[in-house]
Design goal:
The chain is mainly α. 60% of the residues lie in helices and 0% in strands. It has 2 domains: 125 residues, no CATH class; 70 residues.
């Protein structure tokens, strides 16, 4: 049996090479033999991965594009088995029967691109059936297909209800906010000078100034922190019902 080409070996004369390799596999193929099926699927996958379309491969080996797609799917199943570290061999015909049993046609028919996430779910379902010792159902038998649940509609995060303020509370809130603004504004000159000195070479020629500014900033932050701890922002939240009717 000839060795399938690698992706790098697919050259301009790929049609002749593929034709010869395919004929070599076909001449020795045994019916429902997993090894032979895997060799055929691997060969077609190599050329497909190199950029050859199913139509181009069809014209070369005279195999329908639908059948080519089935063998490519079989190879993806083999790759999935390898990724899950499972050693299992089933012929392509048996895999295809399982696949048609559990896949949802709406998710696979007429799709230009393979939905790998969905296909992985199908492969996992097939594995469950094999482990349970369930053979594929006969064609036409109703089966439970793998469906994809529709995404839940987006729900905006819940926003707590804002209690209605009394006129006195509004006045107090404005005063508290103004005081916070004043404390922050008082720190700005020190922060501005401190940042400029730290970016330049001030640490070399003005370490005393930097230390003094840092101390002023520290004291301002402590004053702001102390004021903030005493704030209620004009609202006593504990006096409101957490779950209003």
């Amino acid at each position: 049996m000839s060795t399938p080409a690698t992706a790098e070996a697919v050259s301009e004369d790929w049609q002749a090479r593929l034709h010869a390799e395919w004929q070599a596999l076909e001449s020795k193929r045994r019916h429902d033999n997993a090894d032979d099926d895997q060799a055929r699927a691997a060969l077609l996958t190599t050329y497909h991965a190199a950029g050859k379309t199913a139509r181009q491969i069809e014209a070369c080996i005279h195999l329908s594009d639908g059948r080519i797609g089935q063998l490519l799917c079989y190879q993806r199943w083999l790759d999935w088995l390898s990724s899950t570290m499972v050693e299992l061999k089933i012929p392509e015909r048996q895999f295809r029967a399982y696949y048609h049993q559990v896949r949802d046609p709406r998710m696979t028919w007429g799709k230009r691109r393979v939905n790998r996430d969905y296909e992985d779910q199908v492969f996992a379902r097939i594995m469950d059936l094999i482990k349970a010792g369930q053979p594929p159902m006969k064609p036409g038998t109703p089966a439970k297909v793998v469906t994809v649940d529709p995404p839940e509609p987006h729900q905006p995060p819940a926003v707590p209800l804002r209690p209605e303020l009394t006129p006195a509370q509004r006045v107090r809130a404005r005063k508290e906010v103004h005081e916070v603004e004043q404390l922050c504004a008082a720190m700005y000159p020190d922060l501005k000078v401190f940042a400029r000195l730290m970016k330049g070479n001030g640490r070399e020629w003005a370490p005393t100034v930097i230390a003094w500014r840092a101390e002023r900033i520290t004291q301002s932050l402590k004053a702001l922190e102390g004021y903030m701890k005493g704030l209620k922002f004009a609202i006593d939240w504990d006096s409101f019902d957490a779950d209003p009717a």
